[in-house]
Amino acid sequence: MARLLMRRLIFAVLTLLATSVIVFVATEILPGDVVTALLGQNATPELVKNMRLELGLDQPPIQRYFEWLGGFLTGDLGKSLASHAAVSSVVLPRLWNTVMLAAYAAVIAIPLSIALGVLSAAYAERVFDRTLSTVSVFLVSIPEFAIALALVVFLAVQAHWFPAVIYKPDWNHPGRVIWQLFLPMLTLLCTMMAHMIRMTRAAVLDVMASGYVEFALLKGVPKARILLRHALPNAMGPVLSVVALNLGYLISGVAVIEVVFSYPGLGRLMVDSISYRDMPLIQATAMIFCALYIFFNFIADIGSVVLNPRIMHAS
Amino acid sequence: MTAGPISLQVKSASLRFPPVLASIGIGLVGLVVLLAVFGPWLEPQSPSKLIGGAFDPPGATLLGTDVLGRDVFSRLIAGARLTLFVTAIATTLGFAVGAIWGFAAAELRGWFDDITESLVNILLCFPPLMMGLLVVSALSSSLPVLIGAIAFIQMPRVVRVARSVAINITTMQYVEVARARGEGLFSIMIHEILPNSLRPLGVEYGLRLTYSTLFISGLSFLGLGIQPPDADWGGLVRENLPGVQLGVYLPALLPGLAIGLFAVGLNLIVDWLGKEGARPISEELR
Amino acid sequence: MGALLEISGLSVEARQGGGWVEIVHGASVAIHPGEVVAFIGESGAGKTTLALSALGFNRSGTRFSGGSVHFDGIDVLALDRKARRDLRGRSVAYVAQSAAAALNPSITIGDQISESLRIHRIATAQGARERARALLALLDLPDPDRLAGRYPQQTSGGQQQRIMTAIAMSCGPKLLVLDEPTTALDVTTQIEVLKAIKDAIADQKAAAIYISHDLAVVAQIASRIIVLRRGSLVEQGPADEIIRAPRHEYTRALLSAVKVIPEIGRIGAGRGGAEPKRPVLSVQNVAAGYLKPALGRPLPRQSMVVQDISLHMAPGETLALVGESGSGKSTLARVIAGLLPAAEGDVVLDGKVLGRRVGDRTKEQLRRVQIVFQSPEQALNPRQRIGTAIGRALHFYFGTRAAERAGRIAELLNLVGLPAAFAEKFPDELSGGERQRVAIARALAAKPDIILCDEFLSALDTVVAAKVLQLMADLRDSQGVGYVFISHDLATVATIADRVAVMYAGRIVEIGRTADIFRAPNHPYTSLLIRSVPELRTDWLEETIGDRPVKAPDARAAKIAPGPGCPFRGRCALALPGVCEQTPPAIDLGDGHRLYCHRSVETLSAPQD
Q1: What is the pTM of this model?
Q2: Of residues C101, C151, C167, nearest to A313 (C-beta)
Q3: Fewest CB atoms within 10 A around its CB: which of A121, A170, C64, C589?
Q4: Backbone phi, then psi, for C263, in 5-degree steps?
Q5: For the purposes of burial, counting CB atoms within 10 Å of the CB of C478, is it exposed (0-12), middle (13-18) or buried (19 or more)?
Q6: CA-CA distance, A201 to C522, in Å (whole number)?
Q7: For A262-296, what is each residue's pLDDT tens digit?
Q8: Which residues in chain B are closer than 8 Å to A141, comparing Cβ atoms?
Q9: Are the beta carbons of B167 and B106 closer than 8 angstroms?
């Protein structure tokens, strides 16, 4: 098993390298010359040339890639073209904001989804399950910005219960932040819980249809014990995978929600950087997102291997 | 009676009349398709024509006017057309390539399958929205780029599903017989794999359509998808956001609702198609 | 003494399409304390459905629609959930057909045994552990202490089946329902498990329902036999009476189809000669495995599933390959068909070396060797009409035009005893036997010289299998087609094969004319196989098992890693330490009868025990 885990780890690292190539190439071929775009009206040939030298754009691309990668690994993310601030100083507070919002949602969503998914499987095809599945179908179908917008309209603009925009989360007052971030958190909950509930339910039901569950039933094992002792341990692998994948989604898919609430997170930063063509910022944000996503994919992978009893207790 | 092995095959003609929820799904999707196809005859106004002030309330026109004074209802129909057009073409493209690739990997196995698996795993490790944003920022937000990007993002997912569906078929003994007879790859894909994978592929196609719809809407909402003055449903939400502060909710909320209903419709159909294959559990455990 | 279990007039319905169809028709059965009763019949007879009613259990998609079930005076079908749970496991216990599926992979064996004791509040945690140990020992499982801490997937199939029996017996139930507990096992394992179950039942003085399709197995364990067919009781009576003097026609049909090895004089098709001088098909020193070679380096011999295989087949001959699961029989068939490329050696057809892969062979070469498989469910593409399936082969090999195809398809269907109208049907409208006939017709469409039959009859019910076997013999005589007949079933092989090759762990350990294979001298493995085939008499098991070590080593543990030396030495009663690690010499007994063993012919000729 150790070898299996090692192979997955190597794969994750290779994927991250591939990602960096793609991110670099994509940002390198941004349409139009970055320098001309930056200088705008003031672009004299002299200025352009100096700027290119300053940015190192006269170097061959491969060399620039490795310099960029090296800088990335040592924490030197370069300078923002727009604000001239160090990228790390721009990115880090944003990353914190995004991660905290995601954590807020995850802490509530994960236990709740697993519990609801298991209950849904326990009462499959009964009223509770049918209601929950129907609600889930609606929640996975409506785009997050529409949910966010509806929440803003009804709970913020009309009812004034929560703020509609969060320019500056107040981290010094946890109670206040919980209130401030309530609507974006609720939006995230709506979009990711449905998926997790459905997948948990499916994983548990799959196990419930197995021969050993029928055998347990014929041993006289009570239903609750069948569910918790016989079914759940065998369903945990797939469930954990789904959870990890959803965390990946949560981190890398929040851009839309951050835009709706004008929340100073990493996703909105990336969207803004794209419109300003701020290359170092795009590169940094894209790489952070990809790294987090790959990390959670890796966790999902490991989970499905480690929690598979036939692998864990192989001869 | 012994419990036989779980059949992966779906019996022919096992589709019964759809239950209520699936019928609603078919109705919703049908409605959107009709709106998209017959849009030009249904729009009361040209979707780009200024017919009044900004955010006129409903009355003179069915649903009032938008941020620039254009007819909301007409733009909603035009948005349906654009959304459906991009979604359908991108999904079909990604799906066709992905399915053929996945089938081939399942049948050929060996190095082709190994490479496919690694490649798919790598491609699936990119967060889809980031991929979309990167591609769009690198190239442009033109229709062909958007369609190509969505198709490309969908493709590895389709390859994976098509491959796993096909592997359940290619290990069947009737495929072994065909192979031993000397049938070629193409013949096996057409005669053996395809007819037996229609149901799960149909389910997957439905899921991919939903996904594409939400994806293009999200990009457009961020202003990086379809560019003004054209607007799909996501773009309509974006351009009418200023109304929310003014207390005019309909122009922004309606297109969002439309996306939701269309996706709900697709999901209800997918749910129904997918359910038929599930393994039964004992009634005593329900 | 009153009946322990009394099923009276029980009807069961199953959901089909939109409605309900009756699958058990008012069956009545009484079982007395301590009695072992067999339910026998083909698949779909309702054996399991009927037996499960003793636990008040109906499988998903079925329901009880009439009649009653009384256990120890309790109306089982009227019990509420709680009372039903109290009954199950404690008073009536169940042993499922597939232990691999019925044992929970994430719970230790010890915990799975003690669970019943704990939930029925029969024992304390400590007491349950001790009882688990005792039960494992009772079922002849080695090293109970260690085993209790392991997980089911870490044990062999035969052990899993015994573990499940131990679970069922944990609470000392008055009635055990055993659902085909040995069907999935190899014959050599089956006999041991059967003996262990039989002794354990006797030890616990429990009554039992033993479900099986195999009369010879049932004869060893049951005192009474109940014959079921399509949800109705056909006949019942004491076991020896049913076997000696069956009254009902269906019972007689079942009996005549029982696979037992015939007397020596009637073994083989009676035509078998020595090894052919001019073989139509030869396999020469073939080795093959499923690992992919890494970058042009040759594969290590350890990874080979079959190795050193050489065979020669005369035109129109039936050559059988026998051995237990994992012996490499099917792998060899796939190599011959070109589905799995050989890593070493050649397959030769009419003096011409064939390409290793399908793609490297000519259409004509492919046409001459056809293959048919085991599973009726998988034999035919469910989305293709029967006519299309057969027509495809005609078109592919002969370019037969659509107009002529219909006539030829009708001819072929006729040849395998099916009406021409079947061409319009889809596979799911056919029974298992009919599908296998279609599979033969499709193979015959190519006018082959040889048909590779991979466990072709194993999935069919005995009566149906006997008919298909007869068809194959007729076709051999009328069409001159030869068969490579792969089977784990020695009794069938004894009736159809001209020559037999016995395989163990990927190698041929003995080969010769069928009649020679079934009499001494034999390779020790061959004798073990032959002695493990149950005979149709009630005292066979006791007579046979007496001269065998009951606590046989775990077959998996005894598997020898490929390499030099006799592959069977880990399980061989005659193994010579220090000698059998060398490659065994070939002993030539004449007429093409060869076996590979270090022991002398005299030793091998003596009755082995």
Answers
A1: 0.85
A2: C151
A3: A170
A4: -65, 155
A5: exposed
A6: 57
A7: 999 999 998 888 888 888 888 899 888 888 888 88
A8: 210, 214, 260-261, 263-264, 266-267
A9: yes
H/E element, C249:
helix C249-256
What is d(CA C77, CA B257) in angstroms, rounded to the nearest whole number? 52
Is pLDDT above 80 for C182?
Answer: yes
Cβ distance B281 to A286 less than 8 Å, yes or no, reads no
pLDDT tens across B42-54, in order? 888 888 888 878 7
Q: Which residues on C lie below 8 Å from A309 (Cβ)? A: 105-106, 151, 153
Whether the per-residue pLDDT at B124 is higher than 90: the answer is no
pLDDT given at position B2: 35
Q: Is A265 helix (H, G, I), strand (E, B) or coil?
A: coil
Per-residue pLDDT at A29: 65
- What is the average pLDDT across C566-579? 84
Q: Which amino acid is at B39?
A: G
pLDDT of residue C546: 66
Chain C residues with beta carbon closer than 8 angstroms to that of A215 = 94, 96, 102-104, 164
Computed from CA positions of residues A192, A198, A199, A201, in that sequence, does the dihedral angle turn out positive or negative?
positive
The CA-based angle C454-C460-C466, given to 5 degrees, is 95
**A-chain residue closest to C88, CA distance:** A220
Average pLDDT, integer, range B214-226: 90
Q: Which DSSP letter does residue B212 get?
A: H
Answer yes or no: is pLDDT of C584 > 60. Answer: yes
* Residue of B125, B218, B257 with shortest CB distance to A15: B125
Rounded to two decimals, the ipTM of the complex is 0.83
Tell me the two tokens of residue A107. Answer: 């802490």
Q: Band of the pLDDT at C489, cuts 50, 70, 90? A: confident
Which chain C residue has its CA at the smallest distance from B188's CA? C381
Q: Among residues C401, C400, C404, C436, which one has the least CA distance to residue C418?
A: C436
Q: Note whether B126 contacts A144, CB cutoff 8 Å.
A: no
AA identity, residue A263: Y
User: B273 near B202, Cβ under 8 Å?
Assistant: yes
* H or E, element range at C101: helix C99-102
Which range has highest mean pLDDT (A92-101, C133-142, C551-560)? A92-101
Distance from CA of B179 to the nearest CA of C (A): 7
Top pLDDT among A124 and C226 is at C226
Over chain B, what is the mean pLDDT? Answer: 85
Integer angstrom CA distances of residue B250 from A152, B31, B254, C147 = 13, 20, 6, 69
Quote the pLDDT of residue B13.
36
Question: Which single residue is written with the structure tokens 């049932």?
Answer: C218
Tokens of C366: 């492919």
AA identity, residue C155: T
The residue with tokens 């005893």 is C417
Cα Rg, chain C, nearest whole Å? 26
CA distances (Å), origin B52, targets A171, B232, C87: 46, 21, 78
